[in-house]
Amino acid sequence: MKNKELAQRIKSLRNRKGFSQEELSEKSGLSLRTIQRIENGETEPRGDSLKRLAFAFDVSSDEIIDWTVKEDKGFLISLNLSALSFIIFPILGILVPLTIWISKKDKIRNVNEIAKDLLNFQITWIMLLFVGYISPIIFFAYQMKTTGNIDAGIISSQIIMILVVFAVMYLYNLVIIIINSVRINNDKNVGYFPKIRFIRK
Prior knowledge:
Blueprint lengths: L2 H15 L3 H8 L3 H8 L7 H11 L3 H5 L7 H9 L10 H13 L6 H37 L4 H34 L16
Helix pairs in contact: 2-3, 6-9, 7-8, 8-9
């Protein structure tokens, strides 16, 4: 690849991430002068320099040097909607998007960022769902240990509470997935909340 084309690609990535040259220098560990020379086409990053830039941009080295990385909004929407499989069984909301992401990892623009955010959200959601499920069980066990019996009214109220919590959480997950599918279609950044970053950017 010619230096000029690579320089244009790196500058495009920097602008897309919203980095100044100084910020890119700080994130990559390369000197500001080196960044300027690369963007001016005076030198071509190789080896360690290329890896540092890839890390700063959160892309693979191939995405920097390979212009075949494509725009595919339809695939990104499909990836996002695949998480609806959580309706069948919660863990599928992780496994199905993960499988789809792996098949196109680093080959489609923004697929890594969207997949990581989606998976982090689904993992967090499952953890919260588990907490909502296990809490009444712990409460029942505590009641049984301290009183020796459990009032039927308490059991009924706890079951109703579990059903309400599950309904709200399932509805929330569904709405978040649909909203982000619309955002992808409108070329906007996705937003998943809450999420714990189990998969780092």
